[in-house]
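Project standup — Tuesday

K.O.: blocked on the structure for the chain from last sprint. Re-posting the sequence here as requested.
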Amino acid sequence: MAMIKSSRTENKSAARHTKTIARSAPSPRPPSPIAQALPATALGKISSSLRPMLAARLYGPRNLRVERVPHPGKPGPGNVLLRVTATGICGSDLHTFADARIGDTVLKSPHVLGHEFAGVVEAVGASVEDLRAGARVAVDPAHPCHHCDLCQSGHPNLCRRLHFCGLYPDDGSLREFMIVPARTCFPVPDSLDDETAAMLEPLGVALHATDLAKIRVGDRVAVLGAGPIGLLLIQTAKLAGAAEIFVRDPLPWRLALAMRFGAKPLPVRAEVDVAIEAAWGGAAIEQAMDLARPGGRVVLVGIPSEDRCTFQHSPARRKGLTIVFSRRMKHMHPRAIQLVASGKADVRSLVTHRFPLRDTAEAFALNAGYKDRVVKVIVTP
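H.V.: unblocked you, prediction finished:
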């Protein structure tokens, strides 16, 4: 019979751009130790000696404004003050930008997006021993509680009290400075520039989904969707030993890049060992079910705009498919750093457009409209 699993092993003026819960009912989620509601802050009174900073705040559907807001202040114990150097625009950011919601999470006040990011440590709080001012870091945007049953059993991505940068109500990285827990920061080597460091987060998402797929050497794999996550999944599936990787995407320039990474166009009739959906759900979910062989695996990575997942039950049941939902990632930054630093994974080729923070609204409009052969947009200060 078909087996559906929820992921337990889990889981986005240069005015012109440049191309190139315990087991019982969980207790209420406490405020994030670093959450900042602008202009008020959970860290207490902001020092008047710190200058205001720029932040891109979403007020409603497609209503993104770059404003001056208070500086977050000094970091508390266990935290660091980060100067953000690069933020990637993720598909999940585009969902929120378009609808002022993602899934069942709805914006109720102005909000800062951004969770694929890197920065430089400006100051460290008490008890931080492994980081110093000046350190260049990539940042895991997830802030699990580290105490609930799921955290304790090794699944912080499924934390019952999880906070996440850029997911309402926790502000993200599309601002000049922010405070983050020191334990979420991973120093990067000099060989990785700021853009590359920001791209480690989506690579981690692809690695996590690949782990869930349990790809074996010689497997045939289909990736539905050749956006940034899909393009990274092609690379990680190949690294996992896939013999053939097929891809489907409606945008020809993304298909061309997928071919560069070794994928083949999906034929009209095909059967694969593993089908991975990375296309915002919808029809791609049923396509994945159709492609998977009897006894095969289907991994769902995309987030449907309509917050619904549907497919015909009988074929999936008769095939005995294993269907896995992938949620974000966990413990992936060290692996991602190693893969990129060694040249085994290419994240830079995905970056096609760059915008300064003050032009964030323009960056989102271009990306949401799939204009100018866009693949990945990076926003910098």
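K.O.: great, moving the ticket to review. The domain at 203-325 is CATH 3.40.50.720 (Rossmann fold). The chain has two domains: 13-201+330-380, 203-325.
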